[in-house]
Amino acid sequence: MSDAYSWAQWWAFPWRHAHPDWQAPDVVAYEARLTRNRHAALSKTFAIAPCLPCKPTASLVYLALARPSQHDRMLQLADNICRPLEPNQLDATQRLWCQRLAMSLHTQRWLKPTDDTLQLLRAWVAPHVWSRLRLRFAPCRIMAMEQIPAPDISSTKLQVLWQAVLWYEQTYNPDAGSTEVQLNAVTTHP
Fold first, then answer.
1. Which member of 13, 28, 63, 79 lies 3.0 to 4.6 Å from 117 by CB, making a disulfide possible if both were Cys?
2. Looking at per-residue confidence, does 183 or 154 come out higher?
3. Are 190 and 126 contacting, i.e. CB atoms less than 8 angstroms apart?
4. Are 128 and 51 in contact, with CB atoms under 8 Å apart?
5. Closest Cα partner for 162 from 103, 122, 116, 106?
6. Residues contacting residue 112 through CB under 8 Å, at least 6 positions apart
7. CA distance 55 to 182
């Protein structure tokens, strides 16, 4: 399956990749008999505004189709880059890599101790992408996080952070290449 096709499928039907807690019984019923009207109703249920997909970059396709364990690792890396003193499950090599990136980006004030690292992902991707990507995570986590404004961090710094995390995920994690699509190159997105 091509990256473009995978992206189009994810864009049109993001609930197919949603965290299990988003799956209400009516979603399953809708999915079985999907028509234009029901698609609109289901999109409205998930607060997804209808729009044409943005041009897929390898980075966005990878994020959209990554497995939950890959999302967890990427968020752990981003969290350790911003909060290196917090307990985590990273090994010494990963922590050292995070520490070096943190020093170059000056990330120590990006997140408050109670902030969810997903705030950084939300601030990085475009709102129409976030409305779909958010379904990959537990709804209670998303609802709590979205009550707080996204952090005001330079888009350039967020770009560097997430491109580095995506690169590390693909390069150093053995199962990183086993998403539905392969990240061939870390690319920027508008």
1. 79
2. 154
3. yes
4. yes
5. 122
6. none
7. 17
Q: How many residues does the chain have?
A: 190
Q: Which positions ≥6 away from 15 have C-beta within 8 Å? A: 22, 23, 27, 31, 42, 46, 135
Q: Hey, what are 12's tokens?
A: 């049109």
User: Considering the chain, what percentage of its residues have pLDDT values greater than 70?
Assistant: 83
- Give the model's confidence band at 186: pLDDT under 50 very low, under 70 low, under 90 confident, else very high: very low
Q: How far is CA 23 from CA 16, 19, 160, in A?
A: 9, 7, 34
d(CA 60, CA 129): 9
- pLDDT at position 153: 94
Q: Letter for the amino acid at 101?
A: L
- Helices 92-105, 155-172: axis angle to 10 degrees equals 160
Indicate the SS3 state at residue 137: coil
